[in-house]
Design a protein that fits this description.
three-stranded antiparallel β-sheet, single chain
């Protein structure tokens, strides 16, 4: 039947996992703590022993795609791809049409899978809200060099990391008084607000108070 050569096989996941990274275990909520010093101060919304997070280990997922005759075996994408990019990409693979009456989050990265050279913005917007054990509205902006995380529900739990020097995200620079750090905080914060406005994020009113 030729199904082996006419089938796209995709292996991926919806989230990563902290396995002792940054002193925590689990995914976004990180509520199995391995070392207490990893935790910011508790708040009325986040009890001691909880660590909601947007660490790379919770965000990044392994992904592989097999499509004989279309995608070169062994090729690796250096680009930043988001889960929301799958929808327009899969629609393109299926030769379907994207809805015209609804906004589509995500970008078609099929040209990248085909090995084509296209312009691609490697910045990444992340969000995590929870009312399970902890309460938080975390929003983040990640570039290849920097990551800013804002918790708009809890004071004192914002984060800034220089990923080029600190890929393990252990040195939070949010309280740094260096001008370049303050500039990047302002720049990425404005991008977070713009994305929240675009998405009609209900947490935007909290964000505007910052």
């Amino acid at each position: 039947m030729g199904l082996h050569d006419n089938t796209v096989v995709i292996f991926s996941s919806d989230h990563g996992y902290n396995m002792g990274h940054n002193g925590i275990w689990h995914k976004g909520n990180g509520h199995w703590v391995l070392k207490r010093e990893a935790l910011p101060p508790a708040t009325k919304n986040i009890p001691r022993g909880q660590r909601p997070n947007l660490f790379d280990n919770a965000l990044r997922v392994p992904t592989s795609v097999r499509w004989p005759g279309k995608i070169k075996a062994g090729s690796v994408l250096p680009h930043t791809i988001s889960t929301v990019d799958w929808f327009p990409t899969l629609v393109q693979i299926a030769k379907g049409q994207l809805p015209k009456d609804q906004p589509v989050r995500g970008r078609n990265f099929l040209p990248l899978l085909f090995g084509k050279s296209v312009e691609w913005d490697n910045d990444f917007y992340a969000e995590y809200s929870t009312k399970h054990q902890s309460r938080t509205h975390m929003r983040g902006w990640r570039t290849p060099k920097w990551k800013l995380v804002r918790d708009f529900l809890n004071e004192g739990r914002d984060e800034l990391y220089d990923l080029s020097k600190d890929p393990e995200e252990t040195n939070n620079l949010i309280n740094s008084e260096k001008s370049d750090h303050q500039n990047i905080i302002r720049e990425l914060h404005s991008k977070i607000l713009a994305k929240m406005k675009e998405l009609k994020d209900p947490a935007l009113e909290l964000a505007r108070k910052r």
